[in-house]
Amino acid sequence: MKRKRLLCAVLALVLLFSAPSAALAANANNMRTTVIDGDGVRLPYIQVTIPSRGTVYINPFKLPIAIGDGEVKDQIFSAPANIANKSNVPVEVDITVFGTLKPGSDMHLVSSPTGGTGTAKNAFVYFEIQQSDSDDPEDVTWDSAYDPAKHAAVIENRVVTYPVKLTLPARTLDGEVAPGGYAPFRLSGDAVKKPTNPWTELDGIDVIITYTFTPLPYPAS
Fold first, then answer.
1. pTM of the predicted model as reported, rounded to 2 decimal places
2. Around 73, how many Cα atoms within 13 Å sit in the side-chain half-sphere?
3. How far apart are CA 5 and CA 159, in angstroms?
4. What's the count of helices (H) and strands (E) in the chain, helices before strands?
5. Max CA distance (Å), the chain
6. What is the pLDDT along the chain (221 residues), one digit of tens a residue?
7. Rg (the chain; Cα; Å)
């Protein structure tokens, strides 16, 4: 009789512990899952148009030179050029300039304006860049004079960092360059008009402008 009672107790215990498992089995058809797949890191699309070449003129005697539809008499000037941001994010632009003399030239690049006077064959050349809503050079307002806080002098065989970083906005939703997304640039300066050692056709410079573009996050709304 005791064995029967003990067996009943064990069966009752087994049924008690197996009851939750039976309930889970009954609810298995009611379970659903959501699987979220990783799509990888979303990287910015960087596209900035940059002219590969340009021309700079050294014009000590301020002779009239035809550029496009106009005429220029500046002692140092370059043909119109600009960069444009077509990226889907804003970009920060860091700039350096590096200058060398043409082979056979005995001129000198100096770090401050000459005022056009002196006896040495010196030229002062500096790089300037502005932001604009347009790619038309006629829409640019250039600074009236050299400012070391805003411009970079071109020094022979030396890399000079432009003192200002530009932030060009991302392209519009239509894929167009946004207002302020253009950055026209130029070389300007002056030169000694009548040095003791006269200017010749061998005199000239080469300038390399290097841009580094860093993508920026969109500003918080």
1. 0.81
2. 4
3. 98
4. 1, 14
5. 133
6. 444 444 444 444 444 444 455 555 556 678 888 888 877 777 888 999 999 999 999 999 999 988 877 889 999 999 889 999 999 999 999 999 999 999 999 999 999 999 999 999 999 999 999 999 999 888 999 999 999 999 999 999 999 999 999 999 999 999 999 999 999 999 999 999 999 999 999 999 999 999 999 999 876 65
7. 35
Q: Which of 144, 123, 91 is nearest to 189 (CA)?
A: 123
Q: Which residues have a Cβ under 8 Å from the Cβ of 117 and sit 6 or more positions away?
A: 192, 193
Tokens 């006629």 map to which residue? 138
Residue that is written with structure tokens 């940059």 in the block: 50
The one-character DSSP state at 132 is B
Task: Please give the Cα distance from 4 to 114 (Å, whole number).
Answer: 118
**Rounded CA gap, 203 and 112, in Å?**
19
Residues 61 and 117: beta-carbon distance below 8 Å: no
Query: Where does the chain show beta strands of DSSP type E?
Result: 48-49, 56-58, 65-67, 70-72, 76-78, 81-85, 91-101, 108-109, 122-129, 152-153, 159-161, 166-168, 182-191, 205-215
- Return mean pLDDT, the chain: 87
Structure tokens at 119: 């006896």
215's tokens: 């993508």
